[in-house]
Amino acid sequence: MNQIIRIYIYSLLSLSFSCSENPQEEKIDWKGDHDSFENSFETKQELESSGESPVLYLRGNSEPFSGTVEKNSTDRLSVDEYTAGLLEGKSIRKSLDGSWVEANYREGKLHGKMTFYDKNGDIRSVMNYENGSISPQSID
Fold first, then answer.
1. Which end of the chain is less enclosed by CB atoms within 10 A, N or C?
2. How many CB atoms lie within 10 A of CB 100?
3. Are strands 86-95 and 123-130 parallel, antiparallel or unpaired?
């Protein structure tokens, strides 16, 4: 009987720890237009950061934003991924004419390929970045 009680208590404790959420790690998807974005978010310059990239916050929240932001405007659509308030991962900008740009970010800085596509999906050009600076392309 004691073993059954121990298993039950252990199960309850495990369940409660696994269900607890850390708000810093919660990913949020946000969609709206440019004006709604300006009303919903704010950027702050973090004192302890290296200082180049402002950190994105949902207004009224004390934790930096993590998640996807999709902004629509009359002339383009943008989709950006944020982690801890900084651009992280793929960023996409689509124009009305059907062309688009895909860029990669790491800790708020361009890092990796930036690819420009025409309206047919053909690559127009590719640039490479490393920690925010353009880097020479290697010829394979």
1. C
2. 19
3. unpaired
